[in-house]
């Protein structure tokens, strides 16, 4: 491959058969077909076989399979084949559920791909990084992640973070001149490399290598995405499963030994059949006790939750954070674009001695009369990077677009050549350009008024004549300017100040000094709050979530927008934070909900301070420098229109940039948590009941109220359906009227655990009584089978009733969620099928008669009374 860094820009373009206008779309497509997409070899997806295999890779299932195999070998086919069939059926159901859940999570991952701005057919276009080909001309902006290796053609203060490639965290300044010798990638300052990112400035580059051919592709032939970690909940459940595993094995052994000892007492011989029967019942008890459906339920609830979040415009980047959403009690939100619309409109232009109000007239009249105002709006066009965006109606910086539209309204254009630029940065809060126009070279600057005023020594004024004069800035004028921008700020307007100076002949364009400027004037623009923000903030307050506004804007502007949106509290500015130590800041954080004139670095201190107080903080951000704060926050939310770097650092991407979506997302988070909680409650109380029924029966010397087959059928086939249907349950009406979920609280807080034990125990006691009443106490096989059939049916009924009782305790409307009704009808229908078709011979059950049905209904009624009483209390 040619060394692109040693060739001139022209030669590189020639080598790559392209030009400064970019490739044609047709040529790009040809190259894409020929060389393939610009992506690194993806990690192999989890194969369907592996998912299928996982369904059976569980200790208890192994034990069961072993017992089945053993019974087949010794010729005891009986129930073992049915058990095998149930296991296979369960495996297939589990496989499809997990396969679908994985697929939808994969699809979400694909949505998070990077976009690149390229020139095709001479026009700026956005394509996915995968569609890039060698020869494409890339537009690089502050915050972009570099999608391929490329040779720089043009740079404006371009600096890159190359740490993913070189490990060096200091930003590297880039340039365009050829480099001789054989420098390593770290020293190829005229190249940019895939996976690195732009931290400052802008540039144009031609793509020289894609996919596996890039430097990063060469060092890691297979870069796999960070392995998807299990979420805290999944990990807790794993641990839970492992812990109860031991206890359960103990119980099962005990049951087995008790059964054997009863045999001895009764003086019956131990045959193979009896031995296997005992073994099966003990193992099936283990299946009943270990909630095998739980991991699947959680994975599916999370995957459905991520889809629901996407509908609310929250793209999930890290699954682990979905659970944290429910615990969030502070939202730190950017102002511009998140709380406000980011649709700026200039309302007033102001210069010393004159002004124009766009509300009053179209501006043309006043501006035509004043050289000062003319200069003010000309500066707004000259010192601006969004003209191409305005013309192509694509993107652009809203502040700059507003300046262009105002100038357009006033009929002002700017003809001139740009010589150099010092780009905007949120720390300096200003930008400057050097331009040549009408044989004069000028530097125009624009930025936050207090910053600009500090850089100005003079101002232009106009007395009675139309021509303006340049005068030294006295204290009186400074006060006049300062009073004016405070006044605009108090009206919730963003204020940009403008200044200029002459450029000397030997000026160094690499370090444009923004000093000794002449003040021109101010442009003040409104940016109204977004629709729905006021009610979203109200909702957050009701849900005990504090909303904090963090903005780079002026104190007055921040305060005014806070008032309009319903954010209350004190206001503190960035410089004031700088003057505080951590203790002072901690005190301030108790009462302050508005932070103005902050730079992204302050966000980190704010997050840390809040976290130290035990808060679970959601923080929004869009720029490169927001990345550390996004990472630090418990819930990092990147603004959709923000930079790639912010997206990568965040847990969520806010697709519509809107604050209302954050609150909606938190509501979803709480709902997902509640739905998982309901599923766990349902499965565990059913399981507890079954274990208790068997254990107590063995202990009390009763016949066995359930057979291995019935236990397996309930646990592997019937009870999973309603538990799964909970994943799509709507949320209770009061979900946003409760405090957030305490962060350290397990998935089942003590109150819920108590409830679960109560419900399971009541169910078990009723089952035992039912069993004894309906023939279970007899000696005839037929009688025992009748009793078992009643207990079997009661457990299924119990779970179906519990489905609705649990929802009631979460205030979920009864008739919502048709999936749940389908699941319940399915479970009941399979029950009827087993009892009233020849299937009953396979399961060794009997058709229920009217008397038994009456007993069942009575038992259900008896259960419902205490169940309704104990679930009456609100959860949490
Ligand atoms: P928020 O944090 O609420 O989203 P922001 O991120 O838009 O606000 P910054 O972009 O840091 O805040 O802007 C801070 C200040 O810098 C603004 O109040 C304005 O005075 C000035 N400013 C903003 N954009 C530009 C620009 N393109 N050119 C020059 N000055 C600007």
Give structural attributes.
876 residues; alpha/beta; Calcium-transporting ATPase, transmembrane domain; Rossmann fold; nine-stranded mixed sheet; 32 helices; binds adenosine-5'-triphosphate
Instruction: Calculate the terminal CA-CA distance, rounded to whole Å.
Output: 65 Å
The profile of the biggest β sheet is:
9 strands, mixed
Q: Give the overall pLDDT as a whole number.
A: 86
CATH H-tier superfamily of the largest domain = Calcium-transporting ATPase, transmembrane domain
Which percent band covers the strand fraction? 15-25%
- The domain tally reads 4
SS summary, helix count: 32
> Which spans have pLDDT < 50 for at least 5 consecutive residues?
221-227
Secondary structure: number of strands: 24
Helix content class: 40-55%
CATH fold-level name of the largest domain: Calcium-transporting ATPase, transmembrane domain
Shape category = elongated
Bound molecules: adenosine-5'-triphosphate
Specify the CATH class of the largest domain: Mainly Alpha
Structural class: alpha/beta
The CATH level-2 architecture of the largest domain is identified as: Up-down Bundle
What is Rg? 35 Å
Describe the structure concisely.
By secondary structure, this protein is of the alpha/beta class.
Structure write-up:
With 876 residues, the chain is α/β, with parallel strands linked by helices. It has four domains: 1-216, Distorted Sandwich (Calcium-transporting ATPase, cytoplasmic transduction domain A); 291-311 and 668-872, Up-down Bundle (Calcium-transporting ATPase, transmembrane domain), CATH 1.20.1110; 314-341 and 531-657, HAD superfamily/HAD-like (Rossmann fold), CATH 3.40.50; 345-526, Calcium-transporting ATPase, cytoplasmic domain N, CATH 3.40.1110.10. The protein is built from 32 helices and 24 strands. The strands form three sheets. Strands 10, 11, 12, 13, 14, 15, 16, 17 and 18 form a nine-stranded mixed sheet that branches. The protein has an eight-stranded mixed sheet with strand order 8-24-23-22-9-19-21-20, with helices on both faces. Strands 1, 2, 3, 4, 5, 6 and 7 form a seven-stranded antiparallel sheet that branches. Mean pLDDT is 86; it is low at 221-227. The structure holds adenosine-5'-triphosphate. The site of adenosine-5'-triphosphate has 21 residues, from α15, β13, β14 and β17.
